[in-house]
Design a protein that fits this description.
Layout: H1 3-7, H2 10-32, H3 36-46, E1 62-66, H4 72-82, E2 89-91, H5 96-104, E3 109-113, H6 116-126, H7 132-148, E4 154-157, H8 158-176, H9 187-205, H10 218-231, H11 237-252
Parallel strand pairs: 1-2, 1-3, 3-4
Helix pairs in contact: 2-7, 3-5, 4-8, 4-9, 5-7, 6-7, 6-10, 7-11
Length: 254
């Protein structure tokens, strides 16, 4: 044990251990979540009471999923809001295993994507123990796996989803021969979706937590400068360039 460690307060040592454990769990989950045979059984056990979280071959009608902070909650809320009848949607697993399984089973699948700078910085705010390197690596793992099954999914960019999600649903219908009702992206409908998101947040947490609620948040805006500074470390430039190139490839690929 170093002198610094031996003289640190128990609270400081406990904090350092907690951060290391958090990072180790994050890394393990990131690696496992790319492997359907390993990760999906674990996810089904973990989310056994959360119907619709994990794709099911015989029940799921559509998968809508992407890396965290890529308009996942808005897109699923808006999609369900637009449908005249309930639709079984697998969503919010944030795992490439979910996408790979859906493609193998020929389930209509929409993969959400956001330009990596914004997605990763927002992700770091949501998961403050994670290093920029880990967050970049996780984003890259997810979308490298998506690129491998690119012909079996519709990729919906954050700008399209938040600007006119009806276009994304129409592209899904064209690709898979489905007849889902496109979202009418009016200001009133968007506001109604945000209200539904807040209501669900209250139901889950008892209040609207500005730092976690899945819609624009003033609390997160105030934390962006710190996360952006870490993400923009000059030593990470090559990694940033690679994920930006991957994003461009997926978005321009149709």
């Amino acid at each position: 044990m170093s002198t610094a460690e031996s003289t640190a307060s128990p609270l400081a040592r406990d904090g350092a251990i907690s951060v290391r454990l958090c990072r180790a769990k994050y890394e393990l989950r990131s690696r496992l979540s790319c492997h359907p045979a390993v990760y999906l059984p674990l996810a089904r056990r973990k989310y056994a009471g959360n119907v619709g979280k994990v794709v099911e071959r015989d029940r799921t009608q559509v998968v809508i999923d992407g890396f965290q902070r890529s308009a996942n909650t808005f897109s699923v809320t808006a999609f369900q809001f637009a449908q005249p009848e309930p639709v079984d949607v697998a969503h919010h697993l944030h795992a490439a295993a979910q996408i790979a399984a859906a493609v193998r089973w020929r389930i209509p699948t929409m993969v959400l994507i956001r330009e990596p700078d914004g997605a990763i910085i927002s992700h770091m705010i949501r998961f403050p123990c994670v290093t920029p390197e880990q967050a970049i690596r996780n984003w890259s793992r997810f979308y490298e796996a998506v690129r491998a099954v690119r012909d079996g999914v519709v990729v919906a960019d954050f700008e399209e989803v938040t600007g006119d999600f009806g276009v994304s649903i129409r592209r899904l219908n064209e690709r898979f021969g489905t007849a889902f009702t496109p979202f009418d992206h009016t200001e009133g409908n968007v506001q109604r979706c945000f209200e539904l998101i807040d209501q669900r947040n209250v139901g889950r947490f008892g209040t609207v937590e500005d730092h976690t609620v899945a819609r624009p948040s003033a609390a997160r805006e105030r934390k962006k400068d710190t996360a952006r500074s870490a993400f923009m470390d000059p030593r990470l430039e090559r990694r940033r360039a690679r994920v930006r190139a991957l994003y461009d490839d997926l978005v321009t690929g149709g």
